[in-house]
Amino acid sequence: MREIIKITIALTISCLVAGVVMGSVFIVTAKAKKHNEHLNAQQTMLGLLGYGKAKSAPSGLKLYNIYRYIITESESKYLGYMLPVKKGDRTRYELLVLDLKGQFVSRHSLDILPEATIDPKDRKTALKSVLTPPVTITYADTTIVASLNDKRIAYLLPGEFPGFKTFIKAMLALDADFKILGLEIIEHEEDPGLGGEIEQEYFKNQFKDKPLEKIKKLKVIKEPLPEKYRKYLEKGKWKKGTFSKEDIAVIQKNYQDKDIYALTGATISSVSVTNGIRNMTKKFAYRIKILDKVIASRNVPVSF
Amino acid sequence: MAETTKTNIQLFINGLLNENPIFRLALSMCPAVGISTTVMNGLLLGVAVIFVQVFSSCTIALIKDYIHPRIRIPTYTLTIATWVTVIDLVLSAYFPVAYKAMGIFVRLIVAFAIITMRLEVFASRNRVITSFWDGMGMGFGFLLGMVVLGAIRELMGMGTLLGYDILGFRPLLFFVLPAAGFFLIGFIMAIFNYVEIVYKRKTK
Fold first, then answer.
1. Do residues B129 and B113 touch, judged by C-beta distance below 8 A?
2. Which among A165, A23, A41, A189 is positioned nearest to B108, based on CA atoms?
3. Which residue of B has its CA nearest to A35?
4. Alpha helices of B95-177 — where are they, by DSSP H?
5. Residue B38: its chain A contacts at CB < 8 A?
6. Range in A109-118, A168-177, A199-208 the model is least confident about
7. Distance from B90 to chain A by nearest Cα, in Å?
8. What pLDDT, on the 0 to 100 scale, is given for residue B58?
C-alpha cells in the first residue's frame, strides 16, 4: 500500500513539474508566436499580390477583411456579412444581413475596432450585442479585399478542401474580374514526393492567369507536363532574361487555355486541388456579386 | 549495465557506427521509413532528434537518483514530451524560418523509441557529461542514417539531391514509397553486418 501511494505521489509530482515547465514556456512564447503567425499570413498575402523582397508594397495598398456568418433564427437562415465601412476618417465595422435569396434584411453598426476583428471571440461578442438572442451565429469564412488607392485590385480567399489524406489549406488570389492571380498551399499532409508536389511552383503556377470562364470548367488532364511549359512555370528559379517576351507570348498562347496537368502518381491530389479551387472561385464570384448589388442599392459606404 | 568506461569520443563514435540507431539497433524505423524521402527531410528530422535526445539525456542523468524505479518509463516519456513541447514553442516563437521547415518533424519525436531506449539503457545509469556525449552520438548516428537513406531515395526516386536536379530524369518512382525505405534499410543493415563479420574475423 505504501508503495502505491509513493508511486502515485511521485507520478503526480512529475506530471505537475512537466506541466508547469510547458505552461510557463507557452506563456512566455505565446505573444511572439501569434505575432509570427500574423506576419506569416500577411507575407503570404503580399506574396500572392506580387509584392515581396524585390518589390515592396506601395503605401496605398490596404487589406480589408470581410467576415461571413450564417445566422439561424428559428428555422430560417440568413447570411451576415461583417464589412469595414468609412466613418469620417476612420474605419468601422457594420453587419449586413441578407436572406438566402440575396435580398437585404437589416443593417447594424458594430462596436468593434478594426484591429480587434482578427480575434473570433471579439467578433462574436460584437455580433451578439446587435442581434436579438434566439439566434445562433456560425462563422463561415473570411475574405480579404486588397485595395490600392481606394480601388479594388484583388480578393484573397483563404480556403480549405479535402485532399487525398486530410484537408488542404490554401490561399487563392483573384483579381477584380475573378482571374486567378496566384495560389499558395499553406498546409497539407499529402505524400512527400507524390501528392506533396502540389506545393511546387510547376503545379501551383498552372492556375495563374486563368479567367473565371475557364475556371468554371477547369479539369485535370492526365498528360505529361511539357518540358518547355514546366520550365516557364518554374521561372522563379531561372535567371532573369531566360525567357524573352516572344517566348512568353508563345507559351501563354499555347497553354493558357489548357486544363491542369495532373502530377505523376498523384491524380487524386491534383483533382482535389483543382476541384477545390474551382468551387471556391465559383461560389465566391456568385456571393460577391450579390453582396455588391446590395451594397450599391443601400449605399453602404464600404471602405474597399 | 554498470557505468560506462568508454571515453567521450568513443561514445560518440559508438552512436555513429557500432550502435547506429537505424542500421544496428533497428529502432525508430517507422519515422525513418516514412520521412527519409529526401535529404532535406532526413537532415531536419536528424537535427530535431539530436536536440531532443541530448536535452532529455542530460535531464534524466541529472534527476536519475530521484526517479522511482517503478515509474521510470512514464517519467522518460514526460521528459521527452516536455522537451519536444518546449523546443516546438521556442522555435515557433523566435525562429519562424526554422520552424517552417522543422515544425512537423519536432512534433513527431515524442513517439521515438530510440530516445526512450537511450534514456533507459544509458542516461539513467551514467553521469551528465557521458550522457551528453552518448546523446550526441545517438543523435548524429540517427542523422547520418537518415541522410544516407534520404540521399539514395531522393536520387533514385526523383533524380534530385537537396532539390537540385542531378540526373535529369526519375529512375524509379518506387523509391519514394515507404516500401522502398524498408528494402533500403534492410540492404544497408546487411552491409553493416557484413563489415562487422569481416572486421571480427580480421581481429581474431
1. no
2. A189
3. B93
4. 96-108, 113-121, 128-158
5. 192-193
6. A109-118
7. 7
8. 92
For A234, residues 6+ apart whose C-beta sits below 8 A from its C-beta are A200, A201, A202, A205
Q: Distance from B197 to chain A by nearest Cα, in Å?
A: 37
B chain contacts of residue A26, beta-carbon cutoff 8 Å: 85, 89
Per-residue pLDDT at A165? 84
Contact state of B158 with A193 under an 8 Å Cβ cutoff:
yes
Average pLDDT, integer, range B43-65: 89
Closest C-alpha to A68, from A283, A298, A273, A278: A283
Task: Give the residues across from A95 on adjacent strands.
Answer: A82, A108
Q: Give contacts of B68 with chain A, Cβ < 8 Å.
A: 6-7, 10
Task: Give pLDDT tens digits for B60-118.
Answer: 998 888 888 888 888 888 999 999 999 888 888 888 877 877 777 787 788 788 888 88
| Chain B interface includes A11 (CB < 8 A) | yes
The conformation of residue A302, written as its DSSP 8-state character, comes to B
Q: Among residues A95, A125, A96, A124, which one has the least CA distance to residue A110?
A: A95
Q: Which among A279, A155, A289, A154 has a CA at the least distance from the CA of A217?
A: A279
- Cell 506569416: give the residue: A40
Q: What is the mean pLDDT of residues B177-198?
A: 88
- Backbone torsion region of residue A74, taken as left when φ is above 0, otherwise alpha when ψ lies between -120 and 50, otherwise beta: left
Chain A CB within 8 Å of residue B36 CB: no
DSSP state of B33: H
SS3 A257: coil
CA neighbours closer than 13 Å in the CB half-sphere of residue A148 = 10
Which pairing describes strands A220-221 and A260-261: parallel, antiparallel, or unpaired?
parallel
> Is A118:A38 a contact under the CB 8 Å cutoff?
yes
Output the nine-digit C-alpha cell for B143. Answer: 542523422
A19 pLDDT more than 90: yes
Contact present, A78 and A102 (Cβ < 8 Å): no
pLDDT value for B2: 60
Strand extents, DSSP E, A41-75: 61-73
Q: Complex ipTM above 0.95?
A: no
Residue A275 pLDDT class (50, 70, 90 cuts): very high
